[in-house]
Amino acid sequence: MESLTDLLELAGQYEQELPPAAPMPEAPSGPEIAAWIDHTLLKPEATAEQIKTLCQEARQYQFASVCINPAYAPLAAGLLADSPVMVCTVVGFPLGADLPAQKVVETMACIHAGAVEIDMVQNVGALKGQAYGQVWNEIQAVAQIAHNQRAIVKVILETALLTRREKIIASLICKAAGADFVKTSTGFGPGGATLEDVELMWRVVGPEVKVKAAGGIRTLEDARAMIKAGASRIGASAGVRIVQEVLP
Questions:
Q1: Residue 212 annotated among the catalytic residues of the structure
Q2: Residue of 103, 154, 167, 183 marked active site
Q3: Active site residue 119
Q4: Measured between alpha carbons, how far is residue 35 from residues 5, 141, 186 in Å?
Q5: Could you give the CA distance from residue 227 to residue 211 in angstroms, rounded to a whole number?
Q6: Structure pTM?
Q7: 237 contact partners, CB below 8 Å, separation of at least 6
Q8: Which is catalytic among the residues 98, 119, 197, 222?
Q9: pLDDT, tens digit, for every residue of 156-185?
Q10: Where do the DSSP E strands lie in 92-151?
Q11: Is 228 among the catalytic positions?
């Protein structure tokens, strides 16, 4: 993508006809589905004891990561230091309306605290106000800082607040700005992940960028459906319940 003009032209094309879908792996039907799940606890009232339990569950079931608020990143990093489970935390959460420089500083602080995955909320108001360059620059700045520290960035679009065109544009901006994932929702907005949105985002970003579905995914059936629609990662607070559905 060379310029914002090119991106908007491509978005217009995708509004008319999406690119063909790339093949997706078969959705897991056994306990290996845990490796697709970010075991999540982002409630503001979460306690240190609850985070300890979350990390113990993540070890037991071998989730991809624990997704927690930044204040608990050092605790989780210590508890999971000898584990393959990654520490994921959030930036600009849950509104995305922070100053761009603040998101960059927060990203660095989270990585220094032990996080290796950053789920950043895009500036939804800027996107809806068509300040696309601002959105692009902010995501690019966070992605560059994170990649320099060998961390990955998932950009939360908050799809329930966006039109179809805005979802397409946001997904293309994330891809052009260097994001590793596009993510549907914070879980604090007016709606969560939908199969339609996951497939749309997956078709738009192509194989270079992955999709994380989050918000309202509570059962094995929900999770497998999201994976079939194009998700490579599932954000869920019901991860244990999902995995227990396939255990003897």
A1: yes
A2: 183
A3: yes
A4: 39, 29, 20
A5: 9
A6: 0.97
A7: 39, 40, 41, 42, 187
A8: 119
A9: 999 999 999 999 999 999 999 999 999 999
A10: 117-121
A11: no
